[in-house]
Amino acid sequence: MTLFDSPAFEGHEGVHAFFDEKTGLKCIIAVHSTARGPAAGGCRMWPYASAELALEDALRLSRAMSYKNAMADLELGGGKAVIIGDSRTMKTPALFEAFGRAVEDVGGKYWTAEDVGVSPADLMHARRSTRYVAGLTGHAAASGDPSPVTAEGVFRGVKLGVERALGRGLAGVTVAIQGVGHVGGFLAEKLHAAGAKLIVTDVNQDALREIADKTGAQVVAPNMIFDAEADVFAPCALGGAVNADTLPRLRCKVIAGGANNQLSDPEIGRAVYDRGMLYLPDYVINGGGIINVAGEIRALDRTEAFDPNWVAGKLDRLMETLAEVLDRSKAEHRPTHEVANEMAKARITLAAEQKAAA
Ligand code: NAD
User: Fold this and answer.
1) Cα 201 to ligand 1 centroid, rounded to whole Å
2) Which fold has domain 147-285+322-344?
3) Mutate which of 182, 200, 205, 211 for ligand 1 pocket (most atoms within 8 A of beta carbon)
4) Which of 68, 80, 159, 197 is catalytic?
């Protein structure tokens, strides 16, 4: 497989590969689109079995960031960095300084942040070599943990989904949450406060106990969450929660959660729709986190302090966009994920045309 015939290639503007002999850094930065602004997306460190798999991930994830940033109405394009390596054993300050040089080499077309395997502390090292880093701590522009903002968006999305699919408010509605980590934990507390009944699971027993104690949630084993008698299924753990094995077991009317890549493949999205379930597209409902990060990029660019009011305004706008996705899906009798993808692509194309005409 080469770059251009990879199934994950979709008109990416640039793909940059970096090797640093001294630290062993092997990194790929994929810039999918800068039509709406500089590409933004986190850096993932993962022990990919081959460079080919790392490239595919960078291509796929950077394209997803273009869609997510467009739906969040941010003046940002989509990009992603992947570092090939084991984050438990291979991290050094020098490695992340070298990564910072790689980001700097892309010349401001890509802003990096945290993703799987990369922490704010790692990014502080990258920051020594480049200014195009967000998701830091301890300075006026810092945006802090994005999870509460993500969870607030997911909470409002669940509320919207319940209104649309069940014609009622959250009080007395049962929500099954898979994964009560950062996002799922905050979500559980918000839903509990709104009067929803909760069924929760996690592979981490401590997190599970803490949330169950706080919210009175019923606890089930990880594999049993798909059989829960619930109105809403909220995937907040890993990707692929809705797949050919789990979908026939789900009894809910609404699927709305914080996890990325909830549908194992696009065909499952069609099957969800055909079963009469309302799916709130993951990269729209969970866009609060990237809005928070964008608030930091904006503050750094303007040499200003982080402005939570700007973030709140963008989150309100995101919820309007989410409602528009549901409206169009209903009016056009099409699955919500298809409508969202189409809207995201149209926003990117429009920005590219405006840029070309300027
Ligand atoms: P997290 O690691 O804090 O929480 C995930 C939780 O899921 C953990 O408690 C983990 O033990 C649990 N889990 C893992 N496998 C499980 C399984 N098989 N069954 C049940 N529980 C399982 O991560 P997070 O920051 O809360 O993110 C959760 C999801 O939301 C991820 O998919 C992430 O990519 C996505 N997301 C997060 C943010 C954010 O702001 N944190 C923003 C957008 C998207």
Assistant:
1) 12
2) Rossmann fold (3.40.50)
3) 182
4) 80
User: Is 100 touching ligand 1 by the criterion CB < 6 Å?
Assistant: no
Residues of the chain with CATH 3.40.50.10860: 3-60+79-126
Quote the CA–CA distance of 115 and 45 in Å, as a whole number. 8
The residue with tokens 């001294």 is 22
Is the minimum distance from the CB of 246 to ligand 1 under 6 angstroms? no
What atom of ligand 1 comes closest to residue 237's alpha carbon?
A: 7
For 246, the token pair is 């789990």
Q: What is the pLDDT of residue 149?
A: 96
CA-closest residue to ligand 1 atom 33: 259
Helix intervals (H) in the chain: 51-71, 93-105, 120-126, 147-166, 182-193, 205-215, 266-274, 282-285, 288-302, 308-332, 336-357
> Per-residue pLDDT tens for 196-252?
999 999 999 999 999 999 999 999 999 999 999 999 999 999 889 999 999 999 999
pLDDT tens string 67-119: 999 999 999 999 999 999 999 999 999 999 999 999 999 999 999 999 989 99
Task: Please state the pTM of the whole predicted model.
Answer: 0.94
Give yes or no for residue 138 having a pLDDT over 90.
no
| Numbered ranges of CATH 3.40.50.720 in the chain | 147-285+322-344
**Whether 80 is catalytic:** yes
Q: CB neighbours (10 Å) of residue 357?
A: 6
CATH number of 3-60+79-126, picked from 3.40.50.10860, 3.40.50.80, 1.20.1090.10, 3.40.50.720: 3.40.50.10860
